[in-house]
Amino acid sequence: MNLHLRGGTLIDPGAGTERQADLFVAGERIAAVGTAPSGFVADRTIDAQGLMVMPGLIDLSARLREPGFEYRATLESELAAAVAGGVTRLVCPPDTDPPLDEPGLVEMLTRRAASLKLARVHPLGALTQGLEGERLTEMAELAEAGCVAFSQDDRPFANLTVLLRALQYATTFSQAVWLRPEDAGLARGGVAHDGEVATRLGLPGIPALAETVAVAAILLLVRETGARVHLCRLSTAGAVDMVRVAKSEGLPVTCDVAVHHVHLSEMDIGFFDANCRLSPPLRSLRDRDALARGLVEGVIDAVCSDHAPVDEDGKQMPFGEAEPGATGLELLLPLTLKWAAATSLSLPAALARLTSGPAAVLGLEAPGLGPGAVADLCMFDPQAWWRVEPAALLSQGKNTPFAGYELQGRVRYTVVAGRVVHEATGTI
Amino acid sequence: MTGNPQLGASGELRHLLSIEGLPRAILVHILDTARSFASVTEREIKKVPLLRGKSVFNLFFESSTRTRTTFEIAAKRLSADVVNLNVATSSQSKGETLLDTVANLAAMHADLFVVRHATSGAPHLIARHVAPEIHVINAGDGRHAHPTQALLDMFTIRHFKGDFSRLKVAIVGDVLHSRVARSEIHALTTLGVPEVRVVGPRTLIPTQVEKLGVHVHHDMATGLKDVDVVMMLRLQNERMNGALLPSAQEYFKWYGLTPARLALAASDAIVMHPGPMNRGVEIDSAVADGAQSVILPQVTFGIAVRMAVMAIVAGN
Amino acid sequence: MSLPDAEALLQQLAAAMRGEVDRGTALIGIHSGGVWVAERLHGMLGLELPLGVLDVAFYRDDFECRGLKTGVKPSAIPFEVQGRDIVLVDDVLYTGRTIRAALNVLFDYGRPARVRLAALVDRGGRELPIDAAFVGGVMQVAGTDSVVLGLGAGGRLSLSLTGSDSDG
Q: Are residues A184 and A201 in the same domain?
């Protein structure tokens, strides 16, 4: 299958370039830019006038809910949502049921995901058996089965010795460890940021300290072990500062932020809006601004959707009892554009947080638009305004704090390995 | 979600979920109306026909005989039919039970739900899901709010002090876990009390509570100095020895309201407590039963205030 | 149209009542205009029992559509109602619904021997079988207008017309 994408603006975040040119795809790869290679016959020509053409988005945190939570979402529904959002590659946490702690589970998941021929799926393996925080998993085996790194997800470790051993063991096999920094004791029982809003609404608080104390401990362990650690979904200004210092000292640390934390704060909880029940919690305005700045500076390497589809029963509860999480795959691009518009970054530099940034975290080559690059592409209309209607989302999870928001930027086509896997029909 | 979910299109009180965000005029309307209901409760026949034919469902997901009883008496004095439900909370799928329970009761033609729930925000959730002709009154949710308690306390203060605009009020004790404290703070500041203090050890004072417009004291000597009203909070048993407080004895020694501490307040200060009291833990019996205590009048006024709230809400 | 002088009506009402009330008769004014009229009558008739005051807000038959408005005042009957000769006093007698409500309030205090009604003005338009024993005067008013009693400086009473409807 040969594709001719005509007249689009090519955004190559890796190269930092933006220019209008035709793009020619032959088979799974980009064949040429500008002029067609000799003998090229397009099977399909897409009019990309007015569209931005960029490498497909890489989302470092998207829950697909399989296995175990198929009533919430399925690979079919969530991978369709992914490509509808321009996401061509995603990392899924091991918090399934059972958790991804056995090679068989990982193989089944990756095989089923691959058979759908939508977005590419990279599972994170469980760092401890059953994610119970006590016994290590067979990381080397799991890596061979397809785990891209290892994570404890949101669950606590029995003690820091387990974390220390896990880092040492993972490093033995050159595996990266992804950690969501939160001290379980300090966070226990909390459902919202321990600040003004939690005080006003009488919600048990999770102090910012729960995150910064954990980041401090992790950074000391990294210094000790040399382990390659990725910190997932930072939520506090303090953590951003600590990572900035650690990076300047050359520690092998990366981090990401969930896109809702770049836009929202505790104030958005309003009168107990369960769609704002998130983990980590929405923090203060100061934290939000520090996260947005950290992403500009590059202290934060990537922005992710932290996609967490929750069924209606899980959200139709009093705030503290509601299931945490928000659906996000289809909102990742427009929300990132919204952040970018408020910064001085060029579009390619901003979109690097969705492409080359996360690729580097995964140890992948920076995705590009040059000849020979894999044709994983996202084509979006940067002018299109649309209103977030939860019912219209493809994800089975309709839970989003952005319901009713007017956002700019809409994905029109998504290409994975040279195949058009998503096409938005009509204009909205 | 914008706007106050308690208020209707023209600003009328449709539900009473929290004191927060209610205009002063609504609070004054409730207090004024309660005064008329207080005169009714002094008659031979203590009933008025206002809510005849209406059904009030006392929906208590957390048991509280006292509060439920005062709502029941208030509803009966308004001639409403009262149904009491103590809904046991299963640890699983509480929310499902909550909205399902409410939907079932609404189908039985409930007009007004009085809701007590252990989780902050539960009455808001119910109010969002009931049909527009059904009203919800919060009888206490988690640590969030207990608006009728705050209103009856405002009624009590007005009864004994007349005017809010020159008062110093101290709220003493476990502010962190107290829905009563949060509602009192909003009520006092809305009614124009110029100085509201919260007093307690650092472990029991919530983060950034000063953003609610209060002054924070950790020492009873400065906290009670010259105040006109001392509002004591109940210290729950499970908080008495652990990471928040070492012991009830130490708490009483430093934060218990004794006659000597009360002497720091204005000489005509009144002492209030939402009940039930822990004598010898947060309050000395000599104070609880003393001349400055208005704890029993609080209970009496509670019925008239709850009648006023139900009548106003049901009429909107 | 020109409205009658409230002070003159008050004199006529007092004249009508004189000889019909005695030491054992109690006056009860209906909040708020009725209380002003009752206060004046109480002095003019030289009655001994203290004046009673009723607010009918909790007994109104239009609660369903109007709700509970602000300005409710406590009722106060400072004498035994049981077996008493009582005159209810209101400013404007119209549909009769307020009087119906007032009777219900009254009977929740006890069983009077007799209840009569005194109104400063009877504007007609009755919707219930209620009539006044004493009236200061009768006037015809369009159904869309309401007659309102005002209390001026020095306690002087006056009548005015407003466009909104009421059901006094």
A: yes
Helix or strand run (H / E) with residue A224: helix A209-225
Within-domain flag for A241: yes
CB contact under 8 A, C58 and B36: yes
Average pLDDT, chain C: 92
Q: Looking at per-residue confidence, does B42 or B206 come out higher? A: B206
Residues of B in Cβ contact (< 8 Å) with C55: 36
Q: Residue A367 falls within a domain, yes or no?
A: no
* Contact criterion met (CB < 8 Å) for B39 and C71: no
Chain A hits for B96, CB-CB cut-off 8 Å, are 313, 316-317
Does chain A touch chain C (at least 3 C-beta pairs within 8 Å)?
no
Which of the residues B2, B144, B183 would you substitute to probe the A interface, choosing the one with the greatest number of A C-beta atoms within 10 Å?
B144
Question: How do residues C50-61 score in pLDDT, each as one tens digit?
Answer: 999 999 999 999
Is position A428 within any domain? no
Domain positions in chain C are 6-141
C125 touches chain B (CB under 8 A): no
Domain shared by A156 and A172, yes or no:
yes
Residue A341 lies in a domain: yes
CB pair distance less than 8 Å for C108 and B43: yes
pLDDT bin (cut points 50, 70, 90) of residue B1 is very low
Ranges of residues in chain A whose predicted pLDDT is under 50: 427-428
What distance in Å separates residue B239's CA from the closest CA in chain A?
15
pLDDT at C1: 60
- Please tell me whether residues A344 and A233 are part of one structural domain: yes
What is the CATH number assigned to the segment(s) C6-141? Answer: 3.40.50.2020
pLDDT at B196: 98
Domain count, chain A: 2
- For residues A394 and A335, membership in a common domain is answered with no
In degrees rounded to 5, what are phi and psi of residue B265?
-75, 175
- Per-chain mean pLDDT for chain B: 93
Residues A134 and A282 both lie in one domain: yes
pTM for the complete prediction? 0.92
Query: At A23, which CATH number?
Result: 2.30.40.10
A157 in the same domain as A235: yes
For residue C74, which residues of chain B lie inside 8 Å, CB to CB? 35-36, 38-39
CA distances from B173 to B243, B246, B267, B268, C30 (A): 16, 15, 21, 21, 47
3-state class (DSSP) for residue B61: coil
Give residue B78's pLDDT band: very low, low, confident or very high (50, 70, 90).
very high
Annotated catalytic residues of A are: 306
Distance CA B260, CA B245 (A): 23
Q: What is the pLDDT of residues C124-166, one digit of tens each?
A: 999 999 999 999 999 988 888 889 999 998 889 999 998 754 4
Contacts B182 to A, Cβ<8 Å:
200, 202
Rg, chain A, Cα only: 21
For residues A71 and A157, membership in a common domain is answered with: yes
Q: Quick one: angle between helices B295-315 and B147-161, nearest 10?
A: 120
**CA–CA min distance B209, chain A (Å):** 6
Q: Residues of C numbered 81-110 whose beta carbons fall under 8 angstroms of chain B's beta carbons: which are they?
A: 104, 108-110
Range of the domain at A386: 2-53+372-423
Residue B189 has pLDDT above 60, yes or no: yes
Q: Which pLDDT does position B104 carry in this prediction?
A: 86
CA distance B137 to chain C (A): 16
Tell whether C55 is within 8 A of chain B (Cβ): yes
Q: What sign for the dihedral angle of Cα B130, B132, B134, B136?
A: positive
In which order are the strands placed within the sheet that holds A2-6? A29-33, A23-26, A2-6, A44-47
Q: Are strands A377-387 and A406-416 parallel, antiparallel or unpaired?
A: antiparallel
